[in-house]
């Protein structure tokens, strides 16, 4: 009887630890939602996406923006990834902040879906 109660208590303790830990992970990374990319300004993938955004915008609009850096980036993991970004670019004679959204499929193909100056 004592042995059985010990196992039940141990099992309950183990389950409570597992549930507490998994709940912490869910809070840290929300499934289907946007999550911040830590240190996006130094993250190689975020920087590559930022440069892609500016290049695509220049090609579409015949502009001549110069990519400076990524200020912030959020990622949503779906079948591929969606990104919301704040990008700093040089638009003669000013540095400006732009909002952008990019889709990246599982093969790495990217598509610019939104681009706008935050302050004109």
Question: What would you say this structure looks like, in words?
Answer:
- It holds the Pfam family SQAPI.
- With 120 residues, the chain is an alpha+beta fold.
- It contains 2 helices and 5 strands; from the N terminus they run H-E-H-E-E-E-E.
- The protein folds into 2 domains: 1-30; 35-117, Nuclear Transport Factor 2, Chain: A (Roll).
- The protein has helices at 2-28, 44-61; strands at 35-36, 66-78, 80-91, 94-104, 110-117.
- A 5-stranded antiparallel β-sheet has the order 1-2-3-4-5.
- The longest helix has 27 residues, at 2-28.
- The relative contact order is 0.14.
Question: In summary, what is this structure?
Answer:
This protein is an alpha+beta fold.
List the helices and strands and how they pair.
Layout: H1 2-28, E1 35-36, H2 44-61, E2 66-78, E3 80-91, E4 94-104, E5 110-117
Notable characteristics:
2 domains, Cystatin_dom, alpha+beta, signal, 2 helices, disordered N terminus, 5-stranded antiparallel sheet, Nuclear Transport Factor 2, Chain: A, Cystatin_sf, Cysteine proteinase inhibitor 12, 120 residues
Radius of gyration, whole Å = 22 Å
Count of helices? 2
How many beta-strand runs? 5
Query: What is the terminal separation in angstroms?
Result: 75 Å
Strand order of the largest sheet: 1-2-3-4-5
| Number of domain modules | 2
CATH C-level of the largest domain: Alpha Beta
SSE pattern, N- to C-terminal = HEHEEEE
Instruction: Please mark out the parts with pLDDT under 50 across 5 or more consecutive residues, or reply none.
Output: 3-28
Largest sheet: 5 strands, antiparallel
Shape: globular
Named CATH architecture of the largest domain: Roll
Fraction of residues in H or I helices: 25-40%
Strand content: 35-45%
Mean pLDDT: 82
Structural class determined from secondary elements:
alpha+beta
As an assembly, this protein is single chain
Family: Belongs to the cystatin family. Phytocystatin subfamily.
Protein name: Cysteine proteinase inhibitor 12
Keywords: Protease inhibitor, Signal, Thiol protease inhibitor
GO molecular function: cysteine-type endopeptidase inhibitor activity
């Amino acid at each position: 009887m004592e042995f059985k109660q010990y196992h039940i208590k141990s099992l309950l303790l183990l389950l409570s630890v597992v549930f507490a830990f998994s709940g912490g992970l869910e809070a840290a990374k929300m499934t289907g939602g946007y999550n911040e990319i830590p240190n996006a300004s130094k993250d190689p993938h975020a920087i590559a996406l930022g440069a892609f955004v500016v290049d695509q915008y220049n090609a579409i609009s015949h502009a001549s923006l110069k990519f400076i850096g990524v200020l912030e980036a959020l990622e949503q993991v779906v079948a591929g990834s969606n990104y919301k970004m704040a990008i700093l670019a040089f638009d003669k004679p000013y540095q400006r902040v732009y909002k952008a959204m990019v889709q990246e499929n599982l093969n790495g193909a990217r598509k610019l879906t939104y681009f706008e100056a935050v302050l004109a």
